[in-house]
Amino acid sequence: MLGLLAAQLKYKQGKKQRQSQKPIWVDVGGGTGYNIEAMAAFLPVESFFAHVYLVDLSPSLCEIARQRFTRLGWKNVSVVCQDAREFRLPNRTGDELVNSDSKSHPEKTGKADLVTMSYSLSMIPDYYSVVDSSTSLLSPSGTIGVCDFYGTLLKPQVIHSVFNSWLVQSIVDLTSRNYTGGVFNRHVNWVGRAFWRAWFDADRVGLDGARRDYLEYRFGTVISASARNYLLGGIPYYIFIGCQKEIYDNQPNPSSKEIVEKLDAAYTESPYLSPAKRRQEVSKAMERQVAEIRSKAYESAVINLSANLPLPSSFYQNHHWRIYYNEMLTKHTQFGNEYIYAFTWEDPRVDHRLLNIGSDDIILAITSAGDNILDYLQYNPRRVHAVDLNPTQNHLLELKVASYTALGYRDFWKIFGEGKHPNFRELLVSHLSPHLSSHAFQYWLDHSDTISSQSGVGLYETGGSRYALKMVRCLFTIFGLSGEVKKLCEAQTLEEQRQIWPRIRRVLMSKPLHWGVVCTEWFAWKAAGVPAAQRNMIITDFLERSGLAGGVKKDTEVSGKAIWEYVVNTLDPVVKDTLISNDNYFYYLCLQGRYSRRCHPSYLTPKAHVKLSTPNAFDGLRIHTDEINEVIERITPGTLTIAVVMDSMDWFDPAKEDASKQAQALNNSLKMGGRILLRSASIQPWYIKNFEENGFTARRVGARFPGSCIDRVNMYASTWICKKTKEISVPYPISCTTSPLTLERTNSSSPSMDDLEI
């Protein structure tokens, strides 16, 4: 907790939010003062803080604290033996503190920039009043940090698998809350809940979930994390970093309503109407009868504001890159909290040649591992909307963006070039945390060993694709090919590379291996991220080339031949035409588990780091966790100039209308002349006709025939550019529109939903 708080304070100091005054810290229930002394590991307490107050009701603990600070020689720390509910800060003038009659004139009391409670909230019987008093104690831009034990209240839920069939899923407590900052690892099973509550009850320590619930209700969540201390038997504890519910924007008379609307305008590419011009513009809009398009984040914020609830945690972040999403929806949980790709299988060199990205472009692209998103941002587009349904793919992009913002090139290279950093957890807490969303921080805190561990390959042996990479490395070891692989990755000429390849190919491309493992549907999806619909497209192309009837598509031997031929047509031309050691970083990474200084993506170059580590480099980035259709339906029509959908259209079922609906939605969101870049496992994708029927002119700009190399990846059979040449009429979805007056209240004293003008 102290590391997270220190990181937040240093970030705010760097942003000069407190230009003339040092911060004031109040440690509620500080006991012996250990917490304050421990903060010295992260911040110079004596010089960083104007004053520190330790408040505790125990005279004996306060005496120990006084002796501690006398020994340390810290003159700016005061120990106050008082009930925390009654404690008030004296007023502050300039850099000095002066006494005032704080009880009779509470409006004259000072405000703290930092309030902390470390394992004290669970020991306070009347915790409601203590939390309430903390809201009055904390300044508008202040930070509160709480670390404590917890045990979630018991409620039944449907059992999901045999592995947790004996658990009662108390996570259902949180299903209706969108402001908790994430529920990852928050669930405590029935045995643990019953045991720890009984254990702590003996010492009058309350582990009931209401304490944490009330804390989250009274404050906005910046970071929330749940963990277990397994050295002490798995005690559940949480860390909460929060702020005032009303958003502070360092502006005169800040308003959460105005900030929400401003962010929503960026999410949907809509013009932002300032309060001064809002009513005139709204009346004009109503005359034109044009409904405003609103983001899901906006709709959630409206509901929370009307009910006097905190906003979703994404609104309280230091950066607004990541847009709110409901992590508990089935469409997100289906991925099992794991990304498929640790790196992106798209060649950005080809993308730039085809798209010629400029400063006026507004781009929508699938996130994947975020590599190409970072590549596009180097060309200064006006906006990039990164979209992925899998939350963890966006967590990976967030980590890269935060690392640009907070880390030097050496640390950045270790994490993403080598895939390992021995001090990753320390960097995550002390440097990266102010730049990550609560959800992303929770994920990487739980997976920090992936990068910090000295065993294994590191970051690039994670995700669903790790199955294929581990299998390949295992085969190389078993058949004694590790030396040959090293030679292949060090070859300086194509001729040398071609001579080495046959010895590796005999094992890697053996038909028994492919028919027994690679050609199975399970391996295609889990290891390569190839869904059944895309696999069927590969088989269909093979049948057409072979002149076979479609009825044998499901035949195991035929499907095995189709997949084997597809892999052959992918790998053989790559080795023949691209140099792995110096240029083809995609396959270098697969073979070595890391990048080299000579062979790596452009986002890992020192030049890219200099450009993307500058302030405001990511102001144009918006990260959406949703389906493409859901995102583009909430973007103002006619604003996008480029959409990069990768091979996502291959995932659609030809028997359904999904492809046609997406083509219509893309037509609606793109400007006239806007382009769609897509890749496909098929030489002639079935859905191209859907684009042509919905206002696009489709042109195949790359075709991989047997023996040819389409790009450095060479994994897709074709590449297409679909250009918008005709407007089609698409009505606004009702679910995506909101009245311009949604946030206008007729009576500001009442926060009820009835007071909203509809």
Question: Your description of this structure?
Answer:
This protein is α/β, with parallel strands linked by helices and 758 residues long. Among the domains are: 83 residues, no CATH class; 132 residues, no CATH class. The chain is built from 30 helices and 18 strands. It has a seven-stranded mixed beta sheet. Strands 13-12-11-14-15-17-16 form a seven-stranded mixed beta sheet. Strands 4-5 form a two-stranded antiparallel sheet. Helix 29 links the parallel strand 14 and strand 15. The C terminus is likely disordered. InterPro entries: DUF3419 (IPR021829), SAM-dependent_MTases_sf (IPR029063). It holds the Pfam family DUF3419. It comes from Ajellomyces dermatitidis (strain ATCC 18188 / CBS 674.68).
Task: Based on the model shown, name its key terms.
single chain, alpha/beta, globular, disordered C terminus, SAM-dependent_MTases_sf
Explain the layout of strands and helices.
Elements: H1 2-14, E1 24-28, H2 34-38, H3 45-48, E2 51-56, H4 59-72, E3 77-81, E4 92-93, E5 96-97, E6 112-118, H5 127-137, E7 138-149, H6 190-201, H7 210-218, E8 219-229, E9 235-244, H8 256-268, H9 275-288, E10 292-293, H10 296-306, H11 330-333, H12 348-355, E11 362-366, H13 371-377, E12 383-387, H14 391-406, H15 409-416, H16 424-432, H17 438-446, H18 448-452, H19 466-478, H20 482-490, H21 494-508, H22 511-518, H23 521-526, H24 532-546, H25 556-577, H26 585-592, H27 606-612, E13 621-624, H28 628-632, E14 640-646, H29 658-669, E15 670-680, H30 688-692, E16 696-703, E17 718-724, E18 737-738
Parallel strand pairs: 1-2, 1-6, 2-3, 6-7, 11-12, 11-14, 12-13, 14-15
Antiparallel strand pairs: 4-5, 7-9, 8-9, 10-18, 15-17, 16-17
